[in-house]
Write a structure and sequence with these properties.
The protein is mainly beta and 215 residues long. Helix content is 6%, strand content 34%. It has two helices and eleven strands.
């Protein structure tokens, strides 16, 4: 549950939000408590003093393990359009559209959290790019969730995929029968196979850590 945005806030509340047990010993310098707000360790040289108000509106991170899946979509060419091979890495569930609802791949160990995405289920989270065009090629990362999620920091502020962090505010958002955020990730070499990784997703059949970060 998100911590209060104003008024009284206790160390015990912060500890519980971090996953601790109410009434047990803790300090502001405990790693799990600092992790809620991405606060660095308060060393003597930093001369930084934290206040309870620094945790206003914060919430524990939502950490998911993705078993990275893959699929390939081949589009035949014509007189006017070149043939194309599109590679996907990530997760697409039965309600996702990356690239089609009948083309499921990958899995998550958790699909829904009361503090994130307005408690809506993740339908798909994947990256794709073409392996049949000149390399490096443009890649796009897409997050989809069930309809009813607002495009706000209350849904999520950032998402970390592996070691790379992406701001929600940098994505293009669309709202239809599901909610979708698109990040243009620039160019990289897209493997012309079903085994190579497309960053930031790991190689198929390995794990990618997904971390949602709140307000």
């Amino acid at each position: 549950m998100t911590l209060p945005a104003s008024g009284t806030i206790s160390l015990d509340q912060i500890h519980v939000e971090a996953g601790g047990t109410s009434g047990t010993a803790c300090t502001m310098e405990d790693a799990d408590i600092r992790d809620i707000g991405d606060f660095p360790a308060n060393t003597a040289s930093s001369r930084y003093t934290r206040h309870f108000s620094d945790w206003y509106g914060k919430k524990a991170k939502w950490i998911i393990t993705m078993s990275t899946g893959q699929t390939t979509v081949n589009t035949a060419g014509s007189d006017y359009v070149a043939a194309n091979t599109e590679r996907y890495r990530g997760y697409n569930g039965s309600s996702g559209t990356r690239p089609a609802t009948t083309n499921t791949y990958g899995s998550l160990n958790d699909y829904q959290d009361a503090d994130y995405l307005n408690n809506k289920t993740i339908n798909a989270f994947a990256i794709n790019g073409s392996s049949s065009v000149a390399q490096p090629a443009a890649t796009i990362m897409i997050l989809q969730c069930a309809d009813g999620c607002a495009n706000s920091d209350a849904a999520f502020k950032q998402v970390k995929v592996g070691s790379s962090t992406y701001n929600r505010s940098d994505a293009t958002y669309t709202d239809s029968t599901f909610e979708q955020w698109n990040w243009s990730l620039g160019t990289q070499t897209v493997p012309n196979n079903t085994t190579g990784a497309i960053s930031p997703m790991s190689a198929p059949s390995s794990n990618t850590t997904i971390t949602f970060i709140g307000q």
